[in-house]
Amino acid sequence: MKALRSLVDGIKPTFAKGGKLEKLHWVFDGLESFLFTPGHATEKGAHIRDSIDLKRTMSIVITALIPCLLFGMWNVGHQHYLALGELVGAGDGFWDKFLFGAIKVLPIVVVSYGVGLGIEFLFCSFKGHPIQEGYLVSGMLIPLVMPVDTPLWMVAIGAAFAVVIGKEVFGGTGMNIVNVALTARAFLFFAYPTMMSGDKVWVNTSVEAGQQVVDGFSGATSLGLAATGHADKVVSLMDSFWGIEAGSIGETSAFACLIGALVLLVTGIGSWRIMLSVFLGGLAMSAIFNAVGPGLNNDYMQIPMLHQLMLGGFFFGLVFMATDPVTAAQTDTGKWIYGFLIGFMAILVRVVNPAYPEGMMLAILFMNVMAPLIDHYVVQANIKRRAKRMSLQTA
Amino acid sequence: MSTEVATPEVKPAEPLFSKKNRALITDPLNDNNPITVQVLGICSALAITVKMSNAFVMSISVLFVVVLGNMIISALRNVIPSRIRIIAQLVIAAGLVTLVDITLKAYVYDVAKQVGVYVGLIITNCIIMGRFEAFAMGNKVGPSALDGFGNALGYAWILVAVAFFRELFGSGSLMGVRIIPESWYATQGGFYFNNNMMILPPMALVIVGIIIWVQRTYNTKLIEQA
Lengths: 395, 226
What we know:
The complex is a heterodimer. By secondary structure, chain A is mainly α. Chain A has helices at residues 2-15, 25-35, 54-84, 94-127, 135-144, 152-167, 180-191, 193-196, 222-227, 237-242, 254-266, 272-296, 305-310, 314-321, 332-352, 360-394. The longest helix of chain A has 35 residues, at 360-394. By secondary structure, chain B is mainly alpha-helical. Chain B has one domain (36-225). Chain A binds chain B through residues 151, 153-154, 165, 169, 187, 190-195, and chain B through 191, 193, 195-198, 200, 206, 209, 213.
């Protein structure tokens, strides 16, 4: 640790004002404060400074994402071998599958971080403000919501679009209106629909000599199947809970997401109100569908409530995206409304609109846009209530 | 007793391309651009910029309508009763637009089909009504023509710039000529896909936004004081 400190101190003058690499000062500053807690003190007035700053917050979210990432790597390998008809048991060839998945997934992670952070550094150098670490989490979320077969250049374009149009345009970290990672996904979803939906992209079916894809293989996700009228073919409740199914890299496992949720809740970084209300919203919509499904003779609507929620990216969105503190509603009452409507609409879009097999992305983006409006009315209602109380007291 | 007859001062006729009149053309290109600064005519800028050829046709149509319309309004400005001037302006704009529409249908039918309803909507294009009302009603014919010409050019270059990016990345071609080689496409064994988002209007709005961003970066006097 000492050696690292002295190394950092040694190269510091190079980046200081008048130094050789003055232009890169904020890049250096960002990396330094990533390694060591900065000793900044507030100069004027009394302020309470918590030791947890944006970088620590982000690091905890990344920690919470690790189960999803690791599970996603294994699942990518598992789905691949399943398609080839080899090592079909979930317990077989753990390392083979994990290694295969890691080789597919890590480049996507590296490209996402490289492009996103590169652009962020560029903006900070031009504008001359400290590097904001918002991208640390977005950079991890973007790979986790991509299909495994997404070409790297698409990941790069998506990340670039999300950082520039989703965030920097509005003034950088903490100013964005919609979730950055979902901006990247939505952009790619509408820009390259053939690579972001359908049944060709979710499972890597690259074959080597002597291998071939098994007969009758379908790479469709459970939701893809259900949307095309095969609601009876969705994976079982337990498989969808553990996440042994085709889907985007990190979102299949409700179990891994729940571990992440535990980390976020214990550290107090994720809002339990939002998580609970998204869950309740999804449950409510599923219950409505369960009630009307038999009458409409619609198999998809009749999928049991909990099973419906386990499918697709519902839990991933619930834990990591709906709770984004920047884009969510800020008031407590607002959080309940915001979360409930996300869950409600995610299931509604998923089941009713055949053009979008999964509604979580669209529901969260939509409510991100609505969040300020919800907050406005919550605050206004509070003001009105208190004004009324005042007039009663004085009357 | 001698009566002095006051000789009326003869103003020297202002040359058509004086500095003031040249500004009528150059101003709308940048400092007072109808799309990026006045934010008028956005509707058509989003709708017909999928292909560059459409953008050109639209630009020329608007150029024709706004220049001729400005001249006609300016010539009639002293006889149009001010209470019904909007109706009068609309009639003139509608007449010119109908001319354009018929001409397009006669000579470039394919383009006319694609540009379709938006040619008719030139009548309600705020740029046209804006120029008639704000400039032609109070200025002579010459300057009015220049003003119309400048504004149409300002409109046109934004349209063509947006269409450039949309056609290049959305269809891989420019003016219908293929730029990105066929062999790059995934269907031909390559790696490339057209960006479908570019075909959709929201991306046109994003591109217009980026143009405004770049413009304000270089032209700092456009930034409002907070």
